[in-house]
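Throughout our pipeline, every protein is held as a single compact record rather than as scattered files. The record that follows is passed on verbatim for readers who wish to inspect the format:
___
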Amino acid sequence: MAAPEAAAALGSGPGAGGAELPEPPGLLELCGACGQRLSPQRGPRLLPCLHSVCRGCVGSEHGDKSAFECPVCHQQCPLGDIMDNLFLQPSASSQSCTSCEDNASATSFCLECSEPLCATCVGAHLRVRYTREHRVQPLGSQ
């Protein structure tokens, strides 16, 4: 194909004339099981393989099993390793502390652990020998 013909072929398809086509949702935005767009209302969960599923799909699939099979890559994911997908949360203020079981609102974020922490756990985090040198920043200042 000659150069003018190639240029003409490129300019004749969808999106020609400068119109931008919307980008299709990525794997992080869709539930790997049901294919629905993930939103905070659907309770998005992040699997250890880094694929996402909605809370309802994880709950309906595991039954009495101790692991959940990722519907995308088929990796066996221990139920204890499945966590809230914080990438799809509406804002930092709605994050919960991942270090305690009080379900307290997170006020800070540990850069080394990559975990949101409540005020009580920040104090404990900075007292424990193993984590006292970690950099903990207030949420919103990352």
